[in-house]
Amino acid sequence: MQQFKTPLIISLILHVALVAALVGASFLRSNTPEVLKVTLNAPSPEETPEEIVSAVAVDQNEVNKRIEDMRKQEEAKKRAEQERIRELERRAAQAKRDSAAEAERIKKLEQQRKAKEQERKKAEAEANKAREQQRKEREKAKQAQLEKEKAEKAAKAAAEKRRKEEEAAKKAEEERKRKEAEAARKAEEARQKAIAEQMMQEQLAAEQAARAKARQQQVMSEVDKYTALIKSRIQQNLLIDESYRGKECRLNIKLAFNGLVTSVNSLGGDRQMCDAAVRAVRRVDTLPVSKERDVYEELKNINLTVRPEF
């Protein structure tokens, strides 16, 4: 606004000064026509009256002509002055119009400037808004990119985790199958081994049973033999009477490993026969026994029946 005020003020001052100069000049000029002073030549002494009259007449015509010329000149000057004044007034009016036009132009320029300023501000505001929108869009795009990268990273991590889990599950399944196969193989081996062992045990048991049976038979044979020897030894020491005929006594005899009788008891039978049988055992003191352990085990606590032999 200030850039338009200074030229406008200067223009107004110049126009006012021009109008004042024109008006002052018109007042300073006098409107009274100047009196033309004419000095007639004095008649020469040599001139005649007719010549004098003629000269005066000529001079008067000249004067009138001069006066007319001066009047015309004065009128011309007046017209020129008036024309000049009108021109000045026209110029002043034109200057006023120019000033008004200039003011209007300046006003329009100011309005245009304000409009442009408003447009500039509006454009700047819109540009700022657009920049802000662009910034927001960039931030949004950046955030979206970050979210995308985050999602991709999470998806990648999830895929990696799933891959590892699947791989671990696969390995676990393979390990389970391997262990199951190993367990089945071991179970089969154990079953086969158990079958083999069972068969071996059964075979051994059968062999042992056969050996045991054979040994038992042998032992029983030995037991029968030693039982017969023990009975024979008791019979050798038994004091009998005809009254014992047909009678018997059951005895329980306990023997040490060397055949020493540790105890003898009657288990039932004829009392007199039992007393005689007990006395016969005690009289013997030692009885024949086998040195073989299993045979001795059958003899160390033996029950037998004693009958007198006639």
How does this structure look, described?
The chain is mainly α and about 300 residues long. The protein has a domain at about 220-305: Fusion Protein Consisting Of Minor Coat Protein, Glycine Rich Linker, Tola, And A His Tag, Chain: A, Domain 2 (2-Layer Sandwich), CATH 3.30.1150. About 75% of the residues lie in helices and about 5% in strands. It contains four helices and three strands. Strands 2-1-3 form a three-stranded antiparallel sheet. Helix 2 crosses helix 3 and helix 2 packs across helix 4 (about 295-300). The radius of gyration is 88 Å and the shape is rod-shaped.
Instruction: Report the radius of gyration as a whole number of Å.
Output: 88 Å
Record field, number of beta strands: 3
Largest sheet: 3 strands, antiparallel
Could you give the distance between the termini? 176 Å
Walk across the major sheet and give the strand order.
2-1-3
In CATH terms, what is the fold-level topology of the domain at 218-306?
Fusion Protein Consisting Of Minor Coat Protein, Glycine Rich Linker, Tola, And A His Tag, Chain: A, Domain 2
- Oligomeric state of the chains? single chain
SSE sequence, one letter per element? HHEEHHE
Query: Beta-strand percentage?
Result: 5-15%
The residue-averaged pLDDT reads 79
